[in-house]
Here is the input.
Amino acid sequence: MTTENKARTAALPKVVLVGVDLGLPHFDHDLDELAQLALTAGYQVADRVVCKRRAPDPALFVGSGKADEIKALAMGHGASEILFDQALSPAQQRNLERHMGLPVNDRVLLILEIFAQRARSHEGKLQVELARLQYLSTRLVRRWSHLERQSGGIGMRGGPGETQIELDRRMIGDAIKRTRERLDKVKRQRATQRRQRERRSAFTVSLVGYTNAGKSSLFNALVKAGAYAADQLFATLDTTTRQMYLGEVGRTVSLSDTVGFIRDLPHGLVEAFAATLQEARDADLLLHVVDASNPGHLEQIQEVQRVLREIGADDIPQILVFNKLDAMAPDRRPLQLLDRMEVDGVGLPRVFLSAHTGEALPVLRQLLAGRVPPPAGGNALSNSDFWATPSVEPEDSAQ
Ligand SMILES: Nc1nc2c(ncn2[C@@H]2O[C@H](COP(=O)(O)OP(=O)(O)OP(=O)(O)O)[C@@H](O)[C@H]2O)c(=O)[nH]1
Ligand SMILES: [Mg+2]
Here is the structure.
């Protein structure tokens, strides 16, 4: 780390990360993903606490002894905030803040914060705004109980606070309605653009995948566009679409880079980003990009499949792109760069490649070329025909 970087990091607010192992299979014992989310949101991680519980404590999520321990640790580090890996209920968050005397937030808010920092386009901003308003509407009571305590005093019970809550609820409700209407308008514009594309009978391919898998890097490698790729979670929030010429078949297909998925993606965000994700929903083919060098990549695949089901895109043909081949340990390198892998009972073509070095990129292009039906007017194939003619033979997968 350079001196300049060190100084910059030292100035960032410190946080203590907390993860509670409830025996769920996807629990991240090292809290690495939460740490990366925290870094992306502009915090520095002072310490990590992991504890085991059979079930969350309804009041504090952790036991009160553990809460004391976390508080002492946070004090010792001079931390200004505590971040939980799991979603906290409004009551748990409120109780924890009282107990700790520090702001306590969860993964959901962290993701919302990153989205808010990243949103660039009109549509992206509206989407984040909607998700934030929805999140806020469930936490309103907390904010106002805080104000009540301040302005309360003897003889001032209830009254003003409650009116304020009512007023605020209504304002938030109105704001949600307005934001939704504006988003609907953008959605209609998108639909028009899509129809125009369809009229040109463009074959559309969408890049989907877990955040940081390398979707934008692959997008750039395929179309030589300048999409923002960075070692941050949610580097991309807006869908970018470019035409990609497949010289192999003399056809142009339309390629879209999309927002990344993540475990426990706040539900409001999935809903808010439905317009962006619509691009994936309407694609003829999905390139599901996977960071093959990530030890948790199998769980990440499952998470992406879950979101695809949620947005109704699970019936679209998929090619698995196992990216970051260059970063895989030599003993994990597959013997074949092209094979099939079973996901949710379906055998999917899988290609190992590196968006960085360009290794095996031509294999993917070939695979794509083999899947693009001839231009309209020619012998156009339906999706099912397209899927019934795999150019790759089923094989036992290497992993
Ligand atoms: N070693 C290696 N790193 C890669 C490769 N492709 C992408 N990366 C790195 O992985 C990180 C994430 O890449 P992005 O292309 O931004 O990933 P993304 O899937 O678009 O991420 P989000 O937009 O945040 O969802 C960056 O640091 C890239 O440099 C690759 O083939 N090899
Ligand atoms: Mg990206």
